[in-house]
């Protein structure tokens, strides 16, 4: 097994290789505006660090969000392209699940990432491996009472300490954690645990067609 994991659903452009036993190479950079520019060089760097070629990959793992439209589609399009070129499966996982897994927490908690517009993407977990609610997008103040007393992991929690007083790291997504989670699920024979490699946006993109848009048709 050689899993190539990528995630661009958050400001972190992150890539990792996992051989079924452990992460053998990982690299990433936090830059919310350069997902398209950074992703492929990061893939090349990780492969070079591991001393492997792309054709050694047996499956691709990709974070499907939730996340902003532009960044998220970079990782998904790249993962699907690799899958088609290599003829290997592409496994989707919720980006929040990667952060949850990286936290290592054993009791109930939540994960929250920055959704901009003074909102967070969030979900609840029974432990680091088990999500117990669907991902959602809300204002921190609107969910603070519901999550009272729980640790909250991720950049969204750290941005709003008034709403999430027990905010914790990791702050940014790790493709290594996402790959490790995927490897566990594959080893356990849990194919139903994976999602289709389709974007989980939760809301419409910021870019909109202007109102009163006039369609010009040739005479």
Automatic annotation (TrEMBL):
Gene3D superfamilies, A to Z: 3.30.420.40
Domain of life: Bacteria
Residue stretches spanning the membrane: none
Residue span, Gcp-like domain: 32-144
Pfam entry (one): TsaD
Protein name, UniProt field: tRNA (Adenosine(37)-N6)-threonylcarbamoyltransferase complex dimerization subunit type 1 TsaB
Organism: Streptomyces enissocaesilis
């Amino acid at each position: 097994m050689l899993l190539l994991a990528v995630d661009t659903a958050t400001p972190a452009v992150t890539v990792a290789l996992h051989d079924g036993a452990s992460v053998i190479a990982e690299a990433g950079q936090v830059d919310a505006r350069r997902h398209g520019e950074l992703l492929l060089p990061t893939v090349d760097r990780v492969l070079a660090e591991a001393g492997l070629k792309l054709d050694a990959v047996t499956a691709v793992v990709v974070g499907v969000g939730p996340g902003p439209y532009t960044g998220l589609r970079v990782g998904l399009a790249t993962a699907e392209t690799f899958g088609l070129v290599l003829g290997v499966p592409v496994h989707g996982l919720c980006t929040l699940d990667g952060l949850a897994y990286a936290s290592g927490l054993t009791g109930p908690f939540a994960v929250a990432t920055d959704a901009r517009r003074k909102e967070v993407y969030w979900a609840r977990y029974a432990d680091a491996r088990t999500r117990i609610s669907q991902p959602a997008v809300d204002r921190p103040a609107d969910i603070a009472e519901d999550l009272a007393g729980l640790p909250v992991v991720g950049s969204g929690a750290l941005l709003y300490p008034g709403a999430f007083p027990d905010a914790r790291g990791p702050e940014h997504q790790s493709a290594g954690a996402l790959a490790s989670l995927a490897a566990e699920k594959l080893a356990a024979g849990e194919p139903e645990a994976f999602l289709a490699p389709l974007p989980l946006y939760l809301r419409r993109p910021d870019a909109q067609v202007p109102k009163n848009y006039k369609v010009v048709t040739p005479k």
